[in-house]
Design a protein that fits this description.
Helix 2 runs antiparallel to helix 5, helix 3 packs parallel to helix 4 and helix 7 runs parallel beside helix 8. The protein is α/β, with parallel strands linked by helices. Strands 3-2-1-4-5-7-6 form a seven-stranded mixed beta sheet, with helices on both faces. It starts with a helix and ends with a strand. 44% of the residues lie in helices and 20% in strands.
């Protein structure tokens, strides 16, 4: 199987299962025009986030890594009336593009963008007594995945779902000798997660239009 086949299958599935969304398309287009990295989730993964937020009954969502707010829009749309989403973004330009995309999509009233270093923002949320959050999506700098995860646990409650993206890193996850800081960050996360008694967790490999990668999903038990 080739990347072309993976992309073609994604196109087939998205074309048949996902309703058209001019607002989501516009979010991707405006992000590209602003030269943001082309690393937003694929449409079918966006829909997966939507389904998970709905299935978990989430009313409060924390997103770590906003980029252009493509995934943010998917999750915000899934929230019930009165639901809230806080998303953390370190790059001011990304946050500006994201805010415009949220407003265009009609979900800005549900979403608060916290600007600045995500670890600092998470500590601030703890100091404020924010949360606990019902659903957490971690999709930021991979080097800090473990501290993001441990802080997410502090901002969670039994029943919270934590979704960690880009775990497999094109298979590099299993390279014990890697010098890639992003891969090392994911290995540290996985090594910690296997002994984390507060969660039930698994990870899944994926292929598609974004290549070969995978995600971890945890259910907080205590």
């Amino acid at each position: 199987m080739s990347h072309t086949t993976w992309s073609d299958v994604d196109s087939y599935l998205c074309g048949r299962l996902l309703a058209p969304s001019p607002e989501l398309d516009a979010a991707l287009q405006s992000s590209a025009e602003a030269s943001l990295p082309a690393i937003a989730v694929a449409p079918n993964q966006g829909k997966l986030l939507d389904v998970l937020v709905r299935a978990s009954g989430a009313r409060s969502v924390l997103e770590i890594g906003t980029l252009g707010a493509y995934s943010t829009i998917w999750m915000a749309r899934a929230l019930p009336k009165g639901g809230r989403l806080i998303t953390l973004e370190a790059v001011a330009k990304h946050a500006d593009v994201a805010q415009a995309n949220l407003e265009r999509a009609g979900v800005a009233d549900k979403v608060e963008i916290r600007r600045g270093n995500a670890l600092e923002s998470m500590h601030q949320l703890l100091d404020e007594g924010a949360g606990p959050f019902d659903f957490v999506f971690i999709d930021a700098d991979k080097e800090n995945t473990l501290p993001y995860f441990t802080l997410s646990l502090q901002l969670s409650h039994p029943g919270t779902v934590i979704f960690v993206d880009n775990v497999v890193r094109n298979g590099s996850l299993i390279d014990e000798e890697t010098n890639d800081a992003q891969v090392r960050g994911m290995r540290e996360f996985v090594d910690h997660a296997r002994s984390e008694r507060r969660v039930e967790i698994t990870a899944v490999q994926t292929v598609g239009s974004k290549g070969y990668d995978g995600f971890a999903i945890a259910y907080v038990t205590a």
